[in-house]
Specification:
With 262 residues, this protein is mainly beta. The protein has a single domain, classed as Jelly Rolls, CATH 2.60.120. Helices cover 10% and strands 40% of the residues. It is built from three helices and 17 strands. The strands form three sheets. Strands 1, 3, 4, 6, 11, 12, 13 and 17 form an eight-stranded antiparallel β-sheet that branches. A seven-stranded antiparallel β-sheet has the order 2-5-14-7-8-9-10. A two-stranded antiparallel sheet has the order 15-16. The protein is globular. The relative contact order is 0.28.
């Protein structure tokens, strides 16, 4: 069994690597790590991030089930006052934002936030933005079997009746499971993720918020971040990306981090 815990008396050190464009900081602050982005006009990307996969091939990513993640965190504002995305958990860095990897289909299991105007309506039962427990695994075999039909299926998603009929099949194929977290993000909460070979269980303050028996597989990297990007990716074929203005400093504070593998 392997356990990694954060040391909050100093800024993040090994095994964490930082990704800090100009205007972003990670500092030790009152027994916590503060991930902060300074005010910006929207013309540049800001991102206060730690991870453990920079310059690694995906086959060398560190984490696979079974493991447990525990994080204690709060934010400078609630969902309607943040601008961008934020979260913590495990993914395969599909957009190759760090390192020399090629883009890939997404695979992730994490707590994930996206503000307006982001729109990622991948789960029919949850909004396309907000603070969520979430999973996706577009690398599983059924998706590859369905992928050749995508050029025909995507236009049909614009017809509401067909969307309600067809998208549940697509959602299952890409392993999407989500639950919106209705809570005050500005106060401390304890977030837990238990990732098994066949199941996943998310808890907030000890209460289950999402359970599923089809968790992602494979090797993933750990990431914890807050940035100012907005993303749109809809089943009916709308895709967009942009950076958002930050009218004031925004931050995420983390006062507990433990990953226990085995």
């Amino acid at each position: 069994m392997k356990t990694i815990q954060g040391d909050f008396s100093a800024p993040p050190g090994e095994p964490w690597q930082r990704h800090l464009p100009p205007g972003s900081r990670i500092e030790a602050h009152g027994g916590a790590w503060r991930f902060s982005n300074q005010p910006a006009d929207g013309s540049r990307y800001t991102n206060a991030q730690i991870d453990d996969y920079q310059n690694l091939p995906r086959r060398a990513f560190r984490w696979q089930p079974p493991l447990s993640l525990r994080v204690r965190a709060r934010f400078s504002a609630n969902a309607d006052g943040l601008h961008g995305t934020a979260g913590f958990g495990f993914w395969n860095d599909p957009f190759a934002m760090t390192g020399g990897r090629l883009p890939a289909l997404p695979r992730a299991i994490w707590f994930f936030f996206a503000s307006a105007p982001s729109d990622l309506p991948l789960d029919m039962q949850t909004p396309g933005r907000g603070w969520k427990a979430a999973m996706i695994d577009a690398l599983r075999l059924p998706f590859f079997l369905l992928a050749p039909t995508a050029p025909l299926a995507v236009p049909l998603m614009n017809i509401r009746a067909l969307y309600r009929t067809l998208w549940p099949v697509g959602q299952r194929a890409v392993g999407v499971r989500e639950a919106t977290l209705e809570l005050d993000m500005t106060v401390w909460h304890d977030y837990e993720l238990h990732w098994g070979r066949r199941y996943a269980r998310f808890l907030v303050d000890g209460s289950p918020v999402l359970e599923a028996d089809d968790a992602p597989g494979g090797r993933l990297g750990f990431v914890m971040w807050i940035d100012n990007q907005a993303m749109i990716a809809t089943p009916w074929g709308r895709f967009a990306w942009r950076t958002l203005p930050l009218p004031q400093e925004q931050w995420m504070e983390v006062a507990g981090l433990e990953i226990q593998a085995g």
